[in-house]
Amino acid sequence: MKWEILTNSKLIENLGWTLIYTIWQISLIAFVLFLILRICKNFSANARYLLAVAALGFAFVLPLATFVQLTNDLAQNQLAEKISTWESASLVKRREALPDNFPPSPSNNLETADFSGGNSFFSLDSFQKNLNQTLSSFLPIIVLLWILGVGAFTFRLGGGIWQLHRYKTLEVSKPIKDWQQRFSALCEKLNIRQSVRILQSNLIKTPIVVGWLKPLILMPTSVFLQMNPRELEAILAHELAHIRRFDNLVNLAQSFVEILFFYHPCVWWMSAVIRREREFACDDAVVMVEMFENPHTIYASALANLEEIRRTAKENHTPKLSMAATGGKLMLRINRILEKNTERQNPKQTLWSAGLALMLISAVLTNVFWSDSSFDVNAQSQPKNKKMAIGFVSIPPLDRSENPPKDADATMRLMIEKLKAHKVPAIGFVQGSMISDGEKMYPVRAEIVRLWRDAGFEIGIGGYKHIWFYHTEFEDYVANAEKNEQITKRILVEKNMPLRYFSYPFLNTGKTADDKVKFEAWLTERGLRPVKYTFDNQEWMYSHAYDAARKDNDVPTMKQIRAEFVDYMTKMLAHYEEYSAEMFGRDIAQTLVLTPSRLVADTSDDILGMFEKSGYQFVSMDEAQADEAYQTPDDFSGKSGISWFERWQLSQGRKLRNEPKVSKSILDTWKNYQNRSDSRIPPPPPPKIPPPSKMP
Fold this sequence. Notes:
- The structure is a single chain.
- By secondary structure, this protein is an alpha/beta fold.
- About 60% of the residues lie in helices and about 5% in strands.
- Strands 1-2-4-3-5 form a five-stranded mixed β-sheet. Strands 6, 7, 8, 11 and 12 form a five-stranded parallel β-sheet that branches.
- α13 links the parallel β6 and β7.
- The radius of gyration is 39 Å and the shape is elongated.
- The N and C termini lie far apart (about 85 Å).
């Protein structure tokens, strides 16, 4: 009974016919749009965008007008039926009043009159009538399926709205004041009259715009560290262009039309054209603003880097109600931006540079889109462009053999040979007490430092004595560093070389954050910068065990220690790469701390080769610490000497990751030699917070 009521409903009938008519109506609109876009292919992106929006709007209005027309036709037909029924009843009454012998006339012979106009079984009208009757029986099913589809897509849209609400309210914070000021200046330059907010979020991996009444730009926290400031400003300008054009409002209307006509592929095609041309229009808006020199190349590079960040982070699907800078076909957008650059500017000046930029960006994107995102840490084929700087503490090498100076000299020469073979621009940090008593130099050991200097490697300083900042008064710690500075400069001045870096002994930065700030202010006054090591390790424990085995000429044990050390360093690399991915969503430039020990020299081919196979190139300390990740706040202080990854993690209130453990045999060797009266091994460091200790 209910189904009969449904099938006899005029509303269902009109709605069903409207849905059927939209098949050819919207197809026709899409075909016309296709022709117009072909004719207007040289028009601006904004003009093509407006044409596509108009077509989609017409695709919404025409079915609505059809439904209204069907409803009006139904009312008129019902009225006509009532009139026809009344006229038929009147005619019957008049016929009954006639005499029985009254001759019939053609006009009065209602029973024998032929109104069909002949045999019309195969006529077009008859075919259309039969088709309409057949389709009419399916109208309730069509409408029911349409309602279910609209419900499903509405639910999907609701999920996107809820996701955007989560993005706006969870794990968000204001960026640093410098970026707030930059953003305000950018809004003013782009004539943004609306009040626009900017927040950083830990939940998203690419910038998005949310809302249109009170627009909000959400930026991933890591992007502030991973991208060049000029490139990031270009991305922000793109998002502000969306806001100025009220694109989010149009996008909301698009989503509504997509829900109503989810079944029609032409609607999705028109909607895709709108989104593509909208991104092109915003791209044009960015490069037209002279914010910086050569904006085309900078913006194209920004898009490529942003996509690489997103791919690396394996971002979840962004809700369609948001505007993201990575929307559209990225490679097409980048090609278009650079091609516009060559068209608008002097070809002789820009064609070569734009072509080179296009090739470089194409190479990046080819790697991003075609490489397998899941890879093994030890695999031969690894992501390229990883960077690593290496610092050695302390030089000259620690003397542990029967002939200390001779052994230290041989170790340093072997180390220099290996570093040159692998093209490592290492930096060594002098421990002054090993080359001087404060006044006179120890000739052989000082010559080892000169050997390092003359090989083309940079020299920095630690302390005159390798002491803990935590256990030392501030004035004494400064005096210890100043004494080492004076001794080291006596060697550097011979070649007119600068002194630029300081390495904290034991990686300990003092009892309090104030002590650290004061000491680093002292370093700045001296033209020095502290090294922030991200790749800390307990290589020194393996090196002690190796030196003990060398002294005993225990070749099998030496071989075993070398193998265990290479395995340990491989695991540590994976450990710190996981920190990098978790905190920044990318492989930041790493800084590795080692001692110039015989173990490191003997395993250099294995260790450095392992880094190379993992995709690393060796860079200077300057280049590594130029990575914006090193600007991450660090408020750690205490007894431990830990890596900067761990400091950043603790500063953000997160738990430290469990790191690979030193093998039991190495720990046992360390314990056996720790209490020897003739041992030159420094005392062990205090416990790390919260995992075990480390001491470079």
